[in-house]
Amino acid sequence: MVSIEATGPGGGLSLPPIGGLPGLGPLPGLGPGSGSGFEAQGTGMIVSPNGEIVTNNHVIAGATQIQVTLYGRTTPLDATLVGADPADDVALLKVNGVSNLPTVHFGDSRLLQVGDAVVAIGNALGLAGGPTVTSGIVSALGRTVQASDTGGGNLETLTNMIQTDAAINAGNSGGPLVDSAGNVIGMNTAVAATNSNNAPAQNIGFAIPSDKIESLLPELRRGGTVSPGRAFIGVDVETLTPSLRQAYGFVPKTGAVVVAVVPGSPADAAGIQAGDVIVAFDGKPVTSADDLTTEVRAAKPGDSATLRLWRGQEQLTVTLTLGSTPAS
Q1: What does the alpha-carbon distance between residue 325 and residue 79 come to, in Å, rounded to a whole number?
Q2: 164: part of which helix (H) or strand (E)?
Q3: What Cα–Cα distance (Å) separates residue 290 from each residue in 39, 41, 80, 210?
Q4: Pairing of strands 77-85, 224-225
Q5: Active-site residue, selected from the candidate residues 89, 276, 290, 291
Q6: What phi and psi, each to the nearest 5 degrees, are found at residue 146?
Q7: 231-324, what's its fold?
Q8: Pick the catalytic residue: 3, 14, 58, 288?
Q9: Are 310 and 279 in contact, with CB atoms under 8 Å apart?
Q10: pLDDT tops 60 at residue 327
Q11: Is there a catalytic annotation at residue 89?
Q12: Of 168 and 35, which is predicted with more confidence?
Protein backbone atom coordinates (compact mmCIF):
# COMPACT_ATOMS: atom_id res chain seq x y z
CA MET A 1 0.00 0.00 0.00
CA VAL A 2 1.12 3.58 -0.67
CA SER A 3 -0.03 7.07 0.17
CA ILE A 4 -0.59 9.40 -2.77
CA GLU A 5 -0.27 13.16 -3.10
CA ALA A 6 -1.45 14.72 -6.34
CA THR A 7 -1.25 18.40 -7.24
CA GLY A 8 -2.65 20.27 -10.21
CA PRO A 9 -4.55 23.30 -11.46
CA GLY A 10 -8.19 22.17 -11.04
CA GLY A 11 -10.87 20.95 -8.64
CA GLY A 12 -12.30 17.48 -8.11
CA LEU A 13 -15.37 15.27 -7.96
CA SER A 14 -18.36 15.19 -5.66
CA LEU A 15 -21.43 13.00 -5.37
CA PRO A 16 -24.95 14.46 -5.71
CA PRO A 17 -28.07 13.08 -3.96
CA ILE A 18 -29.34 9.75 -5.33
CA GLY A 19 -32.13 7.28 -4.67
CA GLY A 20 -33.35 7.03 -1.11
CA LEU A 21 -30.13 8.30 0.43
CA PRO A 22 -30.11 11.79 1.97
CA GLY A 23 -27.28 12.62 -0.41
CA LEU A 24 -23.73 11.76 -1.31
CA GLY A 25 -20.91 14.06 -0.35
CA PRO A 26 -17.44 14.55 -1.83
CA LEU A 27 -15.49 11.51 -2.88
CA PRO A 28 -12.95 11.02 -0.10
CA GLY A 29 -9.40 11.77 -1.10
CA LEU A 30 -9.81 15.14 -2.78
CA GLY A 31 -8.54 18.26 -1.12
CA PRO A 32 -10.49 21.51 -1.53
CA GLY A 33 -10.20 23.12 -4.94
CA SER A 34 -9.12 26.73 -5.40
CA GLY A 35 -8.49 29.15 -8.20
CA SER A 36 -4.76 28.48 -8.08
CA GLY A 37 -4.88 24.71 -7.94
CA PHE A 38 -5.60 21.69 -5.77
CA GLU A 39 -3.81 19.16 -3.62
CA ALA A 40 -5.37 15.72 -3.26
CA GLN A 41 -4.35 13.00 -0.86
CA GLY A 42 -5.31 9.40 -1.37
CA THR A 43 -4.17 5.82 -1.20
CA GLY A 44 -2.97 3.25 -3.72
CA MET A 45 -2.49 -0.50 -3.89
CA ILE A 46 0.67 -2.07 -5.34
CA VAL A 47 -0.35 -4.65 -7.95
CA SER A 48 3.06 -5.61 -9.38
CA PRO A 49 6.55 -5.90 -7.84
CA ASN A 50 7.95 -3.39 -10.36
CA GLY A 51 5.84 -0.49 -9.17
CA GLU A 52 2.36 -0.64 -10.71
CA ILE A 53 -0.17 1.03 -8.42
CA VAL A 54 -3.94 1.11 -8.76
CA THR A 55 -6.03 3.90 -7.23
CA ASN A 56 -9.20 5.92 -7.84
CA ASN A 57 -9.17 8.14 -10.89
CA HIS A 58 -10.63 11.01 -8.88
CA VAL A 59 -7.54 11.06 -6.65
CA ILE A 60 -5.25 11.97 -9.57
CA ALA A 61 -7.67 13.56 -12.08
CA GLY A 62 -6.20 16.80 -13.41
CA ALA A 63 -2.90 16.36 -11.55
CA THR A 64 0.32 17.62 -13.07
CA GLN A 65 2.45 15.94 -10.38
CA ILE A 66 1.84 12.66 -8.60
CA GLN A 67 4.02 11.41 -5.73
CA VAL A 68 3.66 8.20 -3.75
CA THR A 69 5.19 7.17 -0.46
CA LEU A 70 5.69 3.49 0.23
CA TYR A 71 4.52 2.12 3.57
CA GLY A 72 7.29 2.36 6.16
CA ARG A 73 9.23 5.00 4.21
CA THR A 74 9.27 8.77 4.36
CA THR A 75 10.74 9.81 1.02
CA PRO A 76 8.12 10.29 -1.72
CA LEU A 77 8.69 8.86 -5.21
CA ASP A 78 7.51 10.36 -8.48
CA ALA A 79 4.77 8.38 -10.21
CA THR A 80 3.42 8.61 -13.74
CA LEU A 81 -0.11 7.94 -14.93
CA VAL A 82 -0.26 4.84 -17.16
CA GLY A 83 -3.98 4.60 -17.85
CA ALA A 84 -7.25 6.00 -16.52
CA ASP A 85 -10.88 4.95 -16.67
CA PRO A 86 -12.91 7.95 -15.44
CA ALA A 87 -16.25 6.20 -15.95
CA ASP A 88 -15.29 3.41 -13.52
CA ASP A 89 -13.13 5.74 -11.34
CA VAL A 90 -10.01 3.58 -11.61
CA ALA A 91 -6.47 4.62 -12.60
CA LEU A 92 -3.13 2.85 -12.93
CA LEU A 93 0.13 4.54 -11.87
CA LYS A 94 3.75 3.46 -12.28
CA VAL A 95 6.82 4.18 -10.16
CA ASN A 96 10.05 3.57 -12.06
CA GLY A 97 13.30 2.24 -10.66
CA VAL A 98 11.77 -0.04 -8.02
CA SER A 99 11.57 -3.82 -7.75
CA ASN A 100 10.50 -6.62 -5.44
CA LEU A 101 7.70 -4.56 -3.92
CA PRO A 102 5.09 -6.44 -1.85
CA THR A 103 1.78 -6.64 -3.71
CA VAL A 104 -1.82 -6.96 -2.64
CA HIS A 105 -3.71 -10.20 -3.16
CA PHE A 106 -7.15 -9.81 -4.72
CA GLY A 107 -9.94 -12.00 -3.39
CA ASP A 108 -13.13 -12.98 -5.21
CA SER A 109 -15.65 -10.21 -4.56
CA ARG A 110 -18.37 -12.37 -6.13
CA LEU A 111 -18.32 -14.54 -3.02
CA LEU A 112 -19.11 -11.66 -0.64
CA GLN A 113 -22.24 -11.80 1.46
CA VAL A 114 -23.96 -9.16 3.50
CA GLY A 115 -22.59 -9.36 7.05
CA ASP A 116 -19.07 -10.44 6.09
CA ALA A 117 -16.37 -8.76 8.18
CA VAL A 118 -14.17 -6.22 6.36
CA VAL A 119 -11.38 -3.78 7.14
CA ALA A 120 -10.79 -0.47 5.33
CA ILE A 121 -7.18 0.71 5.11
CA GLY A 122 -5.91 4.03 3.86
CA ASN A 123 -4.26 7.40 4.23
CA ALA A 124 -7.17 8.83 6.23
CA LEU A 125 -7.00 12.65 6.48
CA GLY A 126 -3.38 12.45 5.34
CA LEU A 127 -2.27 11.91 8.93
CA ALA A 128 1.43 11.26 9.47
CA GLY A 129 2.61 8.00 10.98
CA GLY A 130 1.20 5.38 8.66
CA PRO A 131 -2.17 4.18 7.41
CA THR A 132 -5.44 4.13 9.35
CA VAL A 133 -7.39 0.91 9.80
CA THR A 134 -11.16 0.79 10.43
CA SER A 135 -13.36 -2.27 10.71
CA GLY A 136 -16.94 -3.10 9.83
CA ILE A 137 -19.09 -5.39 7.74
CA VAL A 138 -20.48 -5.60 4.23
CA SER A 139 -23.75 -3.70 4.60
CA ALA A 140 -25.14 -4.25 1.08
CA LEU A 141 -24.10 -5.37 -2.38
CA GLY A 142 -24.87 -4.17 -5.89
CA ARG A 143 -25.31 -0.49 -5.02
CA THR A 144 -25.38 2.16 -7.77
CA VAL A 145 -24.07 5.67 -7.03
CA GLN A 146 -23.64 8.69 -9.27
CA ALA A 147 -20.60 10.98 -9.24
CA SER A 148 -20.13 14.40 -10.79
CA ASP A 149 -17.54 17.13 -10.67
CA THR A 150 -17.95 20.02 -8.24
CA GLY A 151 -19.80 22.02 -10.89
CA GLY A 152 -22.43 19.33 -11.24
CA GLY A 153 -21.27 18.17 -14.68
CA ASN A 154 -19.57 15.04 -16.02
CA LEU A 155 -22.12 12.76 -14.40
CA GLU A 156 -20.80 9.24 -13.96
CA THR A 157 -22.58 6.17 -12.65
CA LEU A 158 -20.65 3.64 -10.56
CA THR A 159 -22.46 0.32 -10.51
CA ASN A 160 -22.34 -2.86 -8.45
CA MET A 161 -20.61 -1.11 -5.55
CA ILE A 162 -20.00 -2.73 -2.16
CA GLN A 163 -21.59 -0.82 0.73
CA THR A 164 -19.82 -1.00 4.08
CA ASP A 165 -20.16 0.54 7.52
CA ALA A 166 -16.37 0.59 8.01
CA ALA A 167 -15.38 4.24 8.38
CA ILE A 168 -14.06 5.75 5.14
CA ASN A 169 -12.58 9.23 5.31
CA ALA A 170 -10.86 11.75 3.06
CA GLY A 171 -7.58 10.18 2.00
CA ASN A 172 -8.94 6.61 2.06
CA SER A 173 -9.83 6.73 -1.64
CA GLY A 174 -7.95 4.10 -3.62
CA GLY A 175 -7.15 2.06 -0.53
CA PRO A 176 -8.06 -1.57 0.05
CA LEU A 177 -11.20 -2.99 1.57
CA VAL A 178 -9.95 -6.30 2.99
CA ASP A 179 -11.77 -9.45 4.08
CA SER A 180 -11.05 -11.48 7.19
CA ALA A 181 -8.46 -13.56 5.31
CA GLY A 182 -6.46 -10.49 4.26
CA ASN A 183 -7.64 -10.53 0.65
CA VAL A 184 -8.50 -7.25 -1.07
CA ILE A 185 -12.15 -7.46 -2.09
CA GLY A 186 -12.70 -3.79 -2.93
CA MET A 187 -11.30 -0.30 -3.38
CA ASN A 188 -12.55 2.40 -0.99
CA THR A 189 -14.13 5.07 -3.17
CA ALA A 190 -17.00 7.12 -1.74
CA VAL A 191 -19.03 8.01 1.34
CA ALA A 192 -22.63 9.08 1.70
CA ALA A 193 -23.36 12.52 3.13
CA THR A 194 -26.36 14.55 4.21
CA ASN A 195 -27.60 17.43 2.11
CA SER A 196 -26.56 19.86 4.83
CA ASN A 197 -23.04 21.12 4.07
CA ASN A 198 -22.07 17.68 2.76
CA ALA A 199 -21.73 16.46 6.33
CA PRO A 200 -20.78 12.79 6.39
CA ALA A 201 -23.65 10.36 6.91
CA GLN A 202 -23.13 7.63 9.46
CA ASN A 203 -21.53 4.36 8.39
CA ILE A 204 -22.36 4.44 4.68
CA GLY A 205 -19.32 3.98 2.46
CA PHE A 206 -18.81 2.42 -0.95
CA ALA A 207 -16.05 0.36 -2.56
CA ILE A 208 -15.43 -0.84 -6.12
CA PRO A 209 -15.41 -4.68 -6.18
CA SER A 210 -12.03 -6.32 -6.71
CA ASP A 211 -13.33 -8.36 -9.64
CA LYS A 212 -14.07 -5.16 -11.55
CA ILE A 213 -10.62 -3.71 -10.75
CA GLU A 214 -8.91 -6.87 -12.00
CA SER A 215 -10.97 -6.86 -15.20
CA LEU A 216 -9.89 -3.26 -15.92
CA LEU A 217 -6.14 -3.76 -15.45
CA PRO A 218 -5.33 -5.16 -18.93
CA GLU A 219 -6.99 -2.18 -20.60
CA LEU A 220 -5.35 0.31 -18.25
CA ARG A 221 -1.93 -1.22 -18.92
CA ARG A 222 -2.36 -0.41 -22.60
CA GLY A 223 -2.22 3.26 -21.59
CA GLY A 224 -4.23 6.39 -22.17
CA THR A 225 -7.73 7.29 -21.11
CA VAL A 226 -10.42 4.69 -21.64
CA SER A 227 -12.98 6.08 -24.08
CA PRO A 228 -16.50 6.70 -22.75
CA GLY A 229 -17.91 5.45 -26.07
CA ARG A 230 -17.78 1.76 -25.13
CA ALA A 231 -20.42 -0.85 -25.78
CA PHE A 232 -23.63 -0.37 -23.85
CA ILE A 233 -26.77 -2.45 -23.33
CA GLY A 234 -28.59 -0.25 -20.83
CA VAL A 235 -29.18 -2.31 -17.68
CA ASP A 236 -28.32 -1.83 -14.04
CA VAL A 237 -27.51 -5.24 -12.58
CA GLU A 238 -26.39 -6.82 -9.36
CA THR A 239 -24.91 -10.21 -8.66
CA LEU A 240 -27.39 -12.97 -7.84
CA THR A 241 -26.63 -14.09 -4.28
CA PRO A 242 -28.12 -16.94 -2.25
CA SER A 243 -30.09 -14.42 -0.17
CA LEU A 244 -31.56 -12.77 -3.29
CA ARG A 245 -32.40 -16.16 -4.75
CA GLN A 246 -34.21 -17.18 -1.60
CA ALA A 247 -36.03 -13.87 -1.23
CA TYR A 248 -37.33 -13.68 -4.80
CA GLY A 249 -37.48 -17.32 -5.83
CA PHE A 250 -35.07 -17.04 -8.76
CA VAL A 251 -34.49 -20.30 -10.60
CA PRO A 252 -30.76 -19.96 -11.54
CA LYS A 253 -28.14 -20.17 -8.82
CA THR A 254 -25.82 -17.60 -10.40
CA GLY A 255 -26.24 -14.69 -12.79
CA ALA A 256 -26.74 -10.93 -13.06
CA VAL A 257 -30.10 -9.69 -11.79
CA VAL A 258 -31.53 -6.78 -13.80
CA VAL A 259 -32.43 -4.05 -11.32
CA ALA A 260 -33.41 -1.39 -13.87
CA VAL A 261 -33.52 -0.91 -17.63
CA VAL A 262 -32.56 2.42 -19.25
CA PRO A 263 -35.48 3.70 -21.35
CA GLY A 264 -34.69 3.68 -25.07
CA SER A 265 -31.59 1.50 -24.58
CA PRO A 266 -30.79 -1.68 -26.54
CA ALA A 267 -31.99 -3.74 -23.58
CA ASP A 268 -35.28 -1.82 -23.53
CA ALA A 269 -35.75 -2.36 -27.26
CA ALA A 270 -35.08 -6.10 -26.82
CA GLY A 271 -37.74 -6.39 -24.13
CA ILE A 272 -35.45 -7.06 -21.17
CA GLN A 273 -37.23 -6.32 -17.89
CA ALA A 274 -36.32 -5.59 -14.27
CA GLY A 275 -36.24 -8.91 -12.44
CA ASP A 276 -34.76 -10.84 -15.35
CA VAL A 277 -31.63 -12.84 -14.51
CA ILE A 278 -28.99 -12.82 -17.26
CA VAL A 279 -27.00 -16.06 -17.25
CA ALA A 280 -25.10 -15.95 -20.57
CA PHE A 281 -23.76 -13.38 -23.05
CA ASP A 282 -22.96 -14.66 -26.53
CA GLY A 283 -22.62 -18.17 -25.18
CA LYS A 284 -20.30 -17.22 -22.32
CA PRO A 285 -21.56 -17.87 -18.78
CA VAL A 286 -22.53 -14.84 -16.71
CA THR A 287 -22.23 -15.68 -13.02
CA SER A 288 -22.10 -12.13 -11.65
CA ALA A 289 -22.72 -8.49 -12.49
CA ASP A 290 -19.01 -8.04 -13.17
CA ASP A 291 -19.04 -10.96 -15.64
CA LEU A 292 -21.67 -9.15 -17.68
CA THR A 293 -19.73 -5.88 -17.51
CA THR A 294 -16.56 -7.64 -18.68
CA GLU A 295 -18.30 -9.25 -21.65
CA VAL A 296 -19.97 -6.02 -22.74
CA ARG A 297 -16.68 -4.15 -22.35
CA ALA A 298 -14.97 -6.63 -24.68
CA ALA A 299 -17.57 -6.01 -27.41
CA LYS A 300 -17.97 -2.98 -29.68
CA PRO A 301 -20.88 -0.61 -30.29
CA GLY A 302 -22.91 -1.94 -33.20
CA ASP A 303 -22.13 -5.58 -32.46
CA SER A 304 -25.02 -8.02 -32.21
CA ALA A 305 -25.23 -10.00 -28.97
CA THR A 306 -27.38 -12.88 -27.78
CA LEU A 307 -28.36 -12.99 -24.11
CA ARG A 308 -29.78 -15.98 -22.30
CA LEU A 309 -31.90 -15.09 -19.29
CA TRP A 310 -34.51 -16.33 -16.86
CA ARG A 311 -37.84 -14.54 -16.35
CA GLY A 312 -39.62 -16.24 -13.52
CA GLN A 313 -39.79 -19.93 -14.37
CA GLU A 314 -39.14 -19.37 -18.08
CA GLN A 315 -35.78 -19.34 -19.86
CA LEU A 316 -35.54 -16.89 -22.78
CA THR A 317 -33.03 -15.94 -25.46
CA VAL A 318 -32.96 -12.36 -26.74
CA THR A 319 -30.80 -10.71 -29.38
CA LEU A 320 -29.88 -7.03 -29.34
CA THR A 321 -27.53 -4.57 -31.01
CA LEU A 322 -25.06 -2.94 -28.63
CA GLY A 323 -25.15 0.83 -28.36
CA SER A 324 -22.52 3.31 -27.13
CA THR A 325 -22.11 4.39 -23.53
CA PRO A 326 -23.81 7.79 -23.11
CA ALA A 327 -21.47 10.72 -22.56
CA SER A 328 -23.08 11.43 -19.20
Answers
A1: 30
A2: strand 156-164
A3: 33, 28, 28, 10
A4: parallel
A5: 89
A6: -115, 135
A7: Pdz3 Domain (2.30.42)
A8: 58
A9: yes
A10: no
A11: yes
A12: 168
